[in-house]
Protein backbone atom coordinates (compact mmCIF):
# COMPACT_ATOMS: atom_id res chain seq x y z
CA UNK A 1 0.00 0.00 0.00
CA UNK A 2 2.83 2.39 0.97
CA UNK A 3 4.72 1.55 -2.23
CA UNK A 4 1.58 2.31 -4.24
CA UNK A 5 1.18 5.72 -2.60
CA UNK A 6 4.87 6.54 -3.09
CA UNK A 7 4.68 5.49 -6.73
CA UNK A 8 1.71 7.81 -7.32
CA UNK A 9 3.54 10.69 -5.58
CA UNK A 10 6.60 10.17 -7.73
CA UNK A 11 4.41 9.98 -10.86
CA UNK A 12 2.66 13.27 -10.14
CA UNK A 13 5.91 15.00 -9.12
CA UNK A 14 7.46 13.97 -12.43
CA UNK A 15 4.30 14.92 -14.36
CA UNK A 16 3.99 18.33 -12.73
CA UNK A 17 7.70 18.94 -13.07
CA UNK A 18 7.68 18.66 -16.84
CA UNK A 19 8.19 21.79 -18.87
CA UNK A 20 4.95 23.40 -19.94
CA UNK A 21 4.12 24.35 -23.51
CA UNK A 22 1.40 26.97 -23.42
CA UNK A 23 0.22 26.68 -27.04
CA UNK A 24 0.95 24.31 -29.89
CA UNK A 25 -0.25 25.21 -33.40
CA UNK A 26 -0.04 22.24 -35.75
CA UNK A 27 0.26 23.19 -39.44
CA UNK A 28 -1.07 20.43 -41.69
CA UNK A 29 0.21 21.03 -45.20
CA UNK A 30 2.85 19.78 -47.59
CA UNK A 31 6.10 21.60 -48.19
CA UNK A 32 7.37 23.31 -45.06
CA UNK A 33 5.77 21.45 -42.17
CA UNK A 34 5.83 23.23 -38.87
CA UNK A 35 4.66 23.42 -35.31
CA UNK A 36 4.38 26.82 -33.64
CA UNK A 37 5.16 26.55 -29.94
CA UNK A 38 4.40 29.24 -27.42
CA UNK A 39 6.39 28.16 -24.40
CA UNK A 40 6.39 29.05 -20.71
CA UNK A 41 9.72 28.35 -19.03
CA UNK A 42 10.13 29.02 -15.29
CA UNK A 43 7.52 31.77 -15.41
CA UNK A 44 9.08 33.48 -18.46
CA UNK A 45 6.74 33.61 -21.44
CA UNK A 46 8.17 33.58 -24.91
CA UNK A 47 7.03 32.76 -28.43
CA UNK A 48 8.92 30.58 -30.83
CA UNK A 49 8.42 28.38 -33.88
CA UNK A 50 9.37 24.75 -34.13
CA UNK A 51 9.72 24.24 -37.87
CA UNK A 52 9.79 20.95 -39.77
CA UNK A 53 11.55 21.35 -43.09
CA UNK A 54 11.68 18.81 -45.87
CA UNK A 55 14.95 16.95 -46.40
CA UNK A 56 15.42 18.70 -49.71
CA UNK A 57 15.29 22.15 -48.11
CA UNK A 58 16.37 21.60 -44.53
CA UNK A 59 19.90 21.22 -43.25
CA UNK A 60 20.86 18.16 -41.23
CA UNK A 61 20.13 19.12 -37.62
CA UNK A 62 19.41 17.07 -34.48
CA UNK A 63 16.05 15.41 -34.79
CA UNK A 64 13.38 14.43 -32.28
CA UNK A 65 11.94 15.66 -29.00
CA UNK A 66 15.16 14.96 -27.09
CA UNK A 67 16.65 17.92 -28.96
CA UNK A 68 13.60 20.01 -28.12
CA UNK A 69 13.92 19.10 -24.44
CA UNK A 70 17.55 20.21 -24.42
CA UNK A 71 16.55 23.38 -26.24
CA UNK A 72 14.04 24.20 -23.51
CA UNK A 73 16.52 23.48 -20.73
CA UNK A 74 19.10 25.77 -22.31
CA UNK A 75 16.55 28.59 -22.42
CA UNK A 76 16.96 29.16 -26.14
CA UNK A 77 14.47 31.42 -27.90
CA UNK A 78 15.64 30.89 -31.49
CA UNK A 79 13.80 28.81 -34.05
CA UNK A 80 14.48 25.10 -33.64
CA UNK A 81 14.61 23.20 -36.95
CA UNK A 82 13.93 19.52 -37.39
CA UNK A 83 14.86 17.44 -40.41
CA UNK A 84 11.71 15.59 -41.37
CA UNK A 85 10.35 13.82 -44.36
CA UNK A 86 7.86 15.75 -46.41
CA UNK A 87 4.83 14.13 -44.75
CA UNK A 88 2.07 15.16 -42.40
CA UNK A 89 2.48 11.90 -40.51
CA UNK A 90 5.86 13.17 -39.27
CA UNK A 91 4.26 16.33 -37.91
CA UNK A 92 1.56 14.34 -36.12
CA UNK A 93 4.19 11.94 -34.78
CA UNK A 94 6.29 14.73 -33.31
CA UNK A 95 3.15 16.43 -31.99
CA UNK A 96 2.17 13.24 -30.15
CA UNK A 97 5.68 13.05 -28.72
CA UNK A 98 5.45 16.67 -27.58
CA UNK A 99 2.22 15.90 -25.74
CA UNK A 100 3.95 12.91 -24.14
CA UNK A 101 7.13 14.73 -23.06
CA UNK A 102 5.66 18.11 -22.10
CA UNK A 103 2.60 19.57 -20.46
CA UNK A 104 0.73 21.07 -23.39
CA UNK A 105 -1.75 23.74 -22.34
CA UNK A 106 -3.79 23.87 -25.53
CA UNK A 107 -3.31 23.37 -29.22
CA UNK A 108 -4.66 24.48 -32.57
CA UNK A 109 -5.04 22.61 -35.85
CA UNK A 110 -4.21 24.58 -38.99
CA UNK A 111 -5.43 23.03 -42.25
CA UNK A 112 -4.31 24.14 -45.71
CA UNK A 113 -6.84 22.61 -48.19
CA UNK A 114 -5.05 23.84 -51.30
CA UNK A 115 -1.82 22.09 -50.32
CA UNK A 116 -3.68 18.99 -49.18
CA UNK A 117 -5.73 18.51 -52.35
CA UNK A 118 -3.77 15.36 -53.23
CA UNK A 119 -4.85 13.77 -49.95
CA UNK A 120 -8.20 12.54 -48.71
CA UNK A 121 -9.05 15.51 -46.50
CA UNK A 122 -11.90 13.72 -44.73
CA UNK A 123 -9.60 10.83 -43.88
CA UNK A 124 -7.02 13.23 -42.47
CA UNK A 125 -9.65 15.12 -40.43
CA UNK A 126 -10.90 11.84 -38.97
CA UNK A 127 -7.44 11.22 -37.44
CA UNK A 128 -7.31 14.55 -35.58
CA UNK A 129 -8.20 15.02 -31.93
CA UNK A 130 -10.74 17.83 -31.48
CA UNK A 131 -11.77 17.10 -27.89
CA UNK A 132 -8.96 19.12 -26.28
CA UNK A 133 -8.41 21.45 -29.23
CA UNK A 134 -9.19 25.12 -28.60
CA UNK A 135 -8.93 26.45 -32.15
CA UNK A 136 -9.23 25.23 -35.74
CA UNK A 137 -8.07 27.32 -38.71
CA UNK A 138 -8.71 26.51 -42.37
CA UNK A 139 -6.35 28.68 -44.37
CA UNK A 140 -5.92 29.66 -48.01
CA UNK A 141 -7.22 28.00 -51.17
CA UNK A 142 -10.71 26.54 -51.34
CA UNK A 143 -12.42 23.90 -49.21
CA UNK A 144 -15.12 21.64 -50.63
CA UNK A 145 -18.58 21.36 -49.09
CA UNK A 146 -18.18 17.70 -48.14
CA UNK A 147 -14.87 18.24 -46.32
CA UNK A 148 -16.08 21.38 -44.51
CA UNK A 149 -19.31 19.68 -43.41
CA UNK A 150 -17.33 16.71 -42.10
CA UNK A 151 -14.99 19.04 -40.20
CA UNK A 152 -17.88 20.96 -38.60
CA UNK A 153 -19.51 17.68 -37.54
CA UNK A 154 -16.30 16.69 -35.73
CA UNK A 155 -15.84 19.93 -33.75
CA UNK A 156 -17.47 20.91 -30.46
CA UNK A 157 -19.20 24.27 -30.03
CA UNK A 158 -16.52 25.65 -27.67
CA UNK A 159 -13.90 25.75 -30.42
CA UNK A 160 -12.64 28.97 -32.01
CA UNK A 161 -13.24 28.46 -35.74
CA UNK A 162 -11.49 30.56 -38.38
CA UNK A 163 -11.65 30.10 -42.16
CA UNK A 164 -9.86 32.19 -44.77
CA UNK A 165 -10.40 29.60 -47.52
CA UNK A 166 -13.03 30.16 -50.19
CA UNK A 167 -16.32 28.40 -49.40
CA UNK A 168 -18.87 27.23 -52.03
CA UNK A 169 -21.71 29.75 -52.42
CA UNK A 170 -24.33 27.03 -51.87
CA UNK A 171 -22.77 25.75 -48.64
CA UNK A 172 -25.22 25.02 -45.81
CA UNK A 173 -24.78 23.32 -42.45
CA UNK A 174 -27.03 23.56 -39.36
CA UNK A 175 -24.01 23.99 -37.07
CA UNK A 176 -21.96 26.33 -39.27
CA UNK A 177 -22.56 29.26 -36.88
CA UNK A 178 -22.69 27.18 -33.71
CA UNK A 179 -19.26 28.01 -32.26
CA UNK A 180 -17.97 30.19 -29.42
CA UNK A 181 -15.92 32.35 -31.77
CA UNK A 182 -16.30 32.51 -35.55
CA UNK A 183 -14.33 34.13 -38.33
CA UNK A 184 -15.49 33.41 -41.90
CA UNK A 185 -13.54 35.49 -44.41
CA UNK A 186 -15.76 34.18 -47.20
CA UNK A 187 -19.31 34.53 -45.86
CA UNK A 188 -21.18 35.02 -49.14
CA UNK A 189 -23.15 31.85 -48.38
CA UNK A 190 -24.44 33.21 -45.03
CA UNK A 191 -27.97 34.68 -45.03
CA UNK A 192 -29.72 36.91 -42.50
CA UNK A 193 -31.85 33.91 -41.47
CA UNK A 194 -28.63 32.02 -40.73
CA UNK A 195 -27.51 34.88 -38.47
CA UNK A 196 -30.80 34.69 -36.55
CA UNK A 197 -29.90 31.16 -35.44
CA UNK A 198 -26.74 32.25 -33.58
CA UNK A 199 -26.92 31.56 -29.84
CA UNK A 200 -24.44 32.13 -26.99
CA UNK A 201 -21.55 33.12 -29.25
CA UNK A 202 -18.77 35.37 -28.01
CA UNK A 203 -17.36 36.93 -31.17
CA UNK A 204 -18.55 36.50 -34.75
CA UNK A 205 -16.53 38.09 -37.58
CA UNK A 206 -17.87 38.23 -41.14
CA UNK A 207 -15.63 41.04 -42.36
CA UNK A 208 -14.37 39.61 -45.64
CA UNK A 209 -16.80 38.89 -48.47
CA UNK A 210 -20.56 38.85 -47.79
CA UNK A 211 -23.85 39.42 -49.60
CA UNK A 212 -25.47 41.61 -46.91
CA UNK A 213 -27.01 45.02 -47.54
CA UNK A 214 -28.49 47.70 -45.25
CA UNK A 215 -31.95 46.09 -45.23
CA UNK A 216 -30.45 42.78 -44.08
CA UNK A 217 -28.70 44.45 -41.13
CA UNK A 218 -31.90 46.31 -40.25
CA UNK A 219 -33.82 43.02 -40.23
CA UNK A 220 -31.15 41.37 -38.09
CA UNK A 221 -31.09 44.23 -35.55
CA UNK A 222 -34.87 44.17 -35.17
CA UNK A 223 -34.73 40.42 -34.51
CA UNK A 224 -31.74 40.75 -32.17
CA UNK A 225 -33.29 43.53 -30.06
CA UNK A 226 -36.49 41.51 -29.64
CA UNK A 227 -34.80 38.16 -28.97
CA UNK A 228 -35.06 37.05 -25.34
CA UNK A 229 -32.07 34.70 -25.69
CA UNK A 230 -28.42 35.68 -25.86
CA UNK A 231 -27.26 35.56 -29.47
CA UNK A 232 -23.73 36.98 -29.35
CA UNK A 233 -21.46 39.32 -27.42
CA UNK A 234 -20.04 40.94 -30.55
CA UNK A 235 -20.91 40.59 -34.24
CA UNK A 236 -18.88 42.36 -36.95
CA UNK A 237 -20.17 42.42 -40.54
CA UNK A 238 -18.93 43.94 -43.78
CA UNK A 239 -21.61 44.72 -46.34
CA UNK A 240 -21.56 43.46 -49.91
CA UNK A 241 -18.96 45.08 -52.15
CA UNK A 242 -20.33 48.30 -53.63
CA UNK A 243 -22.95 48.84 -50.88
CA UNK A 244 -22.44 51.96 -48.77
CA UNK A 245 -23.40 51.86 -45.11
CA UNK A 246 -26.61 53.85 -44.47
CA UNK A 247 -26.79 54.35 -40.70
CA UNK A 248 -30.32 55.80 -40.68
CA UNK A 249 -31.55 53.10 -43.06
CA UNK A 250 -30.07 50.37 -40.87
CA UNK A 251 -31.65 51.85 -37.72
CA UNK A 252 -35.04 52.62 -39.26
CA UNK A 253 -37.77 51.48 -36.87
CA UNK A 254 -35.20 50.63 -34.16
CA UNK A 255 -35.34 52.35 -30.77
CA UNK A 256 -31.93 53.94 -30.48
CA UNK A 257 -30.02 56.84 -28.99
CA UNK A 258 -26.83 58.28 -30.40
CA UNK A 259 -23.76 58.18 -28.19
CA UNK A 260 -22.62 61.61 -27.05
CA UNK A 261 -19.85 62.98 -29.25
CA UNK A 262 -19.88 60.04 -31.67
CA UNK A 263 -21.85 60.37 -34.90
CA UNK A 264 -21.62 56.65 -35.79
CA UNK A 265 -22.25 54.97 -32.44
CA UNK A 266 -25.75 54.26 -31.13
CA UNK A 267 -27.18 52.44 -28.14
CA UNK A 268 -30.19 50.21 -28.79
CA UNK A 269 -33.08 49.17 -26.61
CA UNK A 270 -33.18 45.38 -26.23
CA UNK A 271 -35.44 42.87 -24.55
CA UNK A 272 -32.31 41.83 -22.67
CA UNK A 273 -32.42 45.20 -20.90
CA UNK A 274 -34.22 43.25 -18.19
CA UNK A 275 -31.09 41.13 -17.76
CA UNK A 276 -28.74 44.11 -17.47
CA UNK A 277 -27.70 44.25 -21.11
CA UNK A 278 -28.31 46.82 -23.84
CA UNK A 279 -27.35 46.83 -27.50
CA UNK A 280 -24.65 48.85 -29.19
CA UNK A 281 -24.41 49.69 -32.90
CA UNK A 282 -21.22 51.15 -34.31
CA UNK A 283 -19.66 51.77 -37.72
CA UNK A 284 -15.88 51.71 -37.98
CA UNK A 285 -13.66 51.41 -41.07
CA UNK A 286 -16.57 50.20 -43.19
CA UNK A 287 -17.54 47.49 -40.69
CA UNK A 288 -20.88 47.29 -38.86
CA UNK A 289 -20.42 46.14 -35.28
CA UNK A 290 -23.19 44.98 -32.92
CA UNK A 291 -22.41 44.38 -29.25
CA UNK A 292 -24.27 43.39 -26.10
CA UNK A 293 -23.13 45.81 -23.40
CA UNK A 294 -23.38 44.94 -19.72
CA UNK A 295 -24.52 47.81 -17.51
CA UNK A 296 -21.68 49.73 -15.88
CA UNK A 297 -21.04 53.24 -14.58
CA UNK A 298 -20.64 54.56 -18.13
CA UNK A 299 -24.05 53.25 -19.17
CA UNK A 300 -26.05 54.02 -16.03
CA UNK A 301 -27.55 57.16 -17.63
CA UNK A 302 -28.27 55.46 -20.95
CA UNK A 303 -30.61 52.79 -19.56
CA UNK A 304 -33.40 55.16 -18.36
CA UNK A 305 -33.10 57.11 -21.62
CA UNK A 306 -33.67 53.96 -23.68
CA UNK A 307 -36.61 53.02 -21.46
CA UNK A 308 -38.14 56.46 -22.04
CA UNK A 309 -37.60 56.12 -25.78
CA UNK A 310 -39.26 52.72 -25.71
CA UNK A 311 -42.15 54.18 -23.72
CA UNK A 312 -42.48 57.02 -26.22
CA UNK A 313 -42.55 54.54 -29.10
CA UNK A 314 -45.24 52.44 -27.42
CA UNK A 315 -47.38 55.54 -26.74
CA UNK A 316 -47.03 56.73 -30.32
CA UNK A 317 -48.06 53.30 -31.62
CA UNK A 318 -50.99 53.18 -29.18
CA UNK A 319 -52.12 56.63 -30.33
CA UNK A 320 -52.03 55.57 -33.99
CA UNK A 321 -54.15 52.50 -33.20
CA UNK A 322 -56.73 54.67 -31.39
CA UNK A 323 -56.98 57.02 -34.39
CA UNK A 324 -57.47 54.06 -36.73
CA UNK A 325 -60.19 52.62 -34.49
CA UNK A 326 -61.90 56.03 -34.18
CA UNK A 327 -62.01 56.46 -37.95
CA UNK A 328 -63.55 53.02 -38.37
CA UNK A 329 -66.31 53.88 -35.88
CA UNK A 330 -66.90 57.27 -37.54
CA UNK A 331 -67.33 55.52 -40.89
CA UNK A 332 -69.87 53.12 -39.42
CA UNK A 333 -71.70 55.97 -37.66
CA UNK A 334 -72.31 57.80 -40.95
CA UNK A 335 -74.36 54.89 -42.30
CA UNK A 336 -76.28 54.01 -39.11
CA UNK A 337 -79.98 54.93 -38.95
CA UNK A 338 -80.95 53.26 -35.66
CA UNK A 339 -80.88 55.84 -32.83
CA UNK A 340 -79.88 53.37 -30.11
CA UNK A 341 -76.99 52.00 -32.17
CA UNK A 342 -75.98 55.58 -33.02
CA UNK A 343 -75.79 56.47 -29.31
CA UNK A 344 -73.63 53.41 -28.58
CA UNK A 345 -71.21 54.35 -31.35
CA UNK A 346 -70.98 57.96 -30.12
CA UNK A 347 -70.22 56.72 -26.60
CA UNK A 348 -67.48 54.46 -27.96
CA UNK A 349 -66.01 57.37 -29.95
CA UNK A 350 -66.09 59.62 -26.87
CA UNK A 351 -64.28 56.91 -24.89
CA UNK A 352 -61.59 56.73 -27.56
CA UNK A 353 -61.25 60.54 -27.46
CA UNK A 354 -60.62 60.33 -23.70
CA UNK A 355 -58.04 57.60 -24.21
CA UNK A 356 -56.32 59.72 -26.88
CA UNK A 357 -56.07 62.67 -24.48
CA UNK A 358 -54.59 60.40 -21.81
CA UNK A 359 -52.04 58.94 -24.24
CA UNK A 360 -51.12 62.41 -25.52
CA UNK A 361 -50.53 63.64 -21.96
CA UNK A 362 -48.26 60.69 -21.22
CA UNK A 363 -46.48 61.15 -24.54
CA UNK A 364 -45.58 64.79 -23.89
CA UNK A 365 -44.61 63.99 -20.33
CA UNK A 366 -42.17 61.41 -21.72
CA UNK A 367 -40.85 63.96 -24.23
CA UNK A 368 -40.39 66.45 -21.40
CA UNK A 369 -38.35 63.94 -19.39
CA UNK A 370 -36.17 63.26 -22.41
CA UNK A 371 -35.58 66.98 -22.96
CA UNK A 372 -34.69 67.40 -19.30
CA UNK A 373 -31.98 64.82 -19.90
CA UNK A 374 -30.82 66.97 -22.82
CA UNK A 375 -31.42 64.21 -25.35
CA UNK A 376 -31.91 65.80 -28.75
CA UNK A 377 -30.07 63.50 -31.17
CA UNK A 378 -32.54 60.68 -31.70
CA UNK A 379 -32.63 58.36 -34.62
CA UNK A 380 -36.42 58.76 -34.41
CA UNK A 381 -37.17 62.46 -34.05
CA UNK A 382 -39.56 63.70 -31.37
CA UNK A 383 -42.33 64.82 -33.68
CA UNK A 384 -45.54 65.83 -31.89
CA UNK A 385 -48.61 63.66 -32.25
CA UNK A 386 -51.78 65.28 -33.55
UniProtKB/TrEMBL annotation:
Keyword Transport listed? The answer is: no
Q: Which residues form a coiled coil?
A: 322-362
For this UniProt record, the keywords arranged alphabetically read as follows:
Coiled coil
One Pfam family hit: FBA_2
UniProt entry tagged with the keyword Coiled coil:
yes
Q: Which residues form the Sdz-33 F-box domain?
A: 178-228
The cross-references to PANTHER family, in alphabetical order and at most eight, read:
F-BOX ASSOCIATED DOMAIN-CONTAINING PROTEIN-RELATED, F-BOX-CONTAINING HYPOTHETICAL PROTEIN C.ELEGANS
Identify this protein by name: Sdz-33 F-box domain-containing protein
Taxon lineage: Eukaryota, Metazoa, Ecdysozoa, Nematoda, Chromadorea
Amino acid sequence: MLMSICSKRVYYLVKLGRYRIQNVHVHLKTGDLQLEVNRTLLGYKDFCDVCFNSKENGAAVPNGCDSLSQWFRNGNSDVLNFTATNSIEDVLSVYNRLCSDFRVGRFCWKLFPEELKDRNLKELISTLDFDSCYKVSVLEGEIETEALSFLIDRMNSKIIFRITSEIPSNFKHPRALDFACLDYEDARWVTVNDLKTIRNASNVDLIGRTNFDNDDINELIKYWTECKEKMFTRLSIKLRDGVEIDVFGILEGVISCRSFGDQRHYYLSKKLIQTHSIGSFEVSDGIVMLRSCIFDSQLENMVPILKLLEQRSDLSMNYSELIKKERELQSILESVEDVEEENELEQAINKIEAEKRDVKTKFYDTVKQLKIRRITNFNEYLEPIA
